[in-house]
Amino acid sequence: MLTGAAGGLGRTGHSVVAVCSGTILVLGCLSNLLVRTPISLILLNISLGDLPLCALGTPFSLAASVRGSAGCTRYGFANALFGTVSLISLSILSYERYVRVLRRRMKVNVSSYQKSCLFIAGSWFYSLLWTLPPLFGWSSYDLEGPGTTCSVAWHARSPNNIPW
């Protein structure tokens, strides 16, 4: 019942895995909200950045293969936006740990609620700053490598893709 014809997971198996994963996600988010530390806000931002990436990745990937350029633009934008938010949030978290563990004598407080919220807003702003221009004609999102994923068209040599 849980396995498919080729030995992989069937529809029921995928549903069971999705429900278990969703339950773990909800419990993880609730535990982060209950901890209520400034660092947990950064961790929650990483989770909230990865959640749409997981939820939209497969449908947008399908849209990219079916709809061509328009689907590829959506898929590339979603991957770039949410992936950059996660990477910036991980960088902020690692800097906070560096200051907390190795620079105790500096008396630098990077883990206040106000600074955490500023860092979170900054991560989203920075990500939008670099992922929105291809939607407005400065560069573009296109198939990359073997043609299975979409990203910024790094290889293109059109006037829109060459820096000033």
Write the layout of secondary structure elements.
Layout: H1 11-35, H2 38-67, H3 69-102, H4 113-131, E1 141-144, E2 149-152
Antiparallel strand pairs: 1-2
Silhouette:
flat
Task: Give the SSE string.
Answer: HHHHEE
Largest sheet: 2 strands, antiparallel
Number of helices: 4
Could you tell me the mean pLDDT? 76
Residues in helices, as a percent range: 55-70%
Instruction: Give a count of the beta strands, DSSP E runs of length 2 or more.
Output: 2
Per DSSP, what share of the residues sits in E-state strands of 2 or more residues?
A: under 5%
Low-confidence stretches: none
By secondary-structure content and strand pairing, the structural class works out as mainly alpha
Q: How widely separated are the two ends?
A: 59 Å
Nearest-angstrom radius of gyration? 20 Å
Spatially, the strands of the biggest sheet line up as 1-2
Subcellular location: Membrane
Keywords: G-protein coupled receptor, Membrane, Receptor, Transducer, Transmembrane, Transmembrane helix
Membrane topology: Multi-pass membrane protein
InterPro entries: GPCR_opsins (IPR050125), GPCR_Rhodpsn (IPR000276), GPCR_Rhodpsn_7TM (IPR017452)
